[in-house]
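User: Can you predict the 3D structure for this chain?
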Amino acid sequence: MLGVLVNVVTVLLGTLIGLFAKKGIPEKVEKTVMTGLGLCTMMIGIQGALQEMQALVMIFSVVLGGLVGGALDIDGFINRTAHRVEDHFRKGRSGGASAAEGFVSGTLLFCVGAMTIVGSFNSGLRGDHEMLFTKSLLDFFSSMMLTVSLGFGVGLSAIAVFVIQGGIVLFAGVLEPLLSSAMIAQIASVGSVMILGIGLNLAGIAKIKVANYLPAIVFAPFLCRAAELLPL
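Assistant: Here is the predicted structure, written as structure tokens:
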């Protein structure tokens, strides 16, 4: 769990630095930073989605995930929960980002991707934390910049980092035989589509309820396996 704990600490530390830096940044500059961060996030999402992408698997995963997530209103649940937490700490700032936005954006950025899955497997099965250490460094800078735009809610995503990555580390021995390299690649690709959605939101281009597509990550490996078995 060492790699996971280091990742959690770097996200919290990056958030703390971002909060201090945020106080001295004018609103116009903050908006510019948010737009720039959104554009960079979009590029990360596009790059990740195109790597080893199986188009049909991605499309069906996103559609099915959206149907389930929309029906369950996952985005609404996360927002309501995060707003309750936010109300305990500070009043919402007019025109500013909410804790819910920071939490959802941070969680998807830090917990969705090949480095999360492969790094957690390496940590759990072999005691090799190198990939998670590398990811921690990247997340440190990402959380710092994201906090400047979205506030303290980004720090709450450290909880998700601990639960998700820690869960994979603890159950790595059980999950490894069930997930092929192709399945992991499709999970990362589908997750990257959601990262692209975050980028569109940050840049102010759209307002997508990204969390409603989270079930797509669950559908991706099953559909990938089905595609392998079907004689297409």
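The CA atoms of residues 50 and 211 lie 21 Å apart. Residues 2-19+28-229 form one domain.
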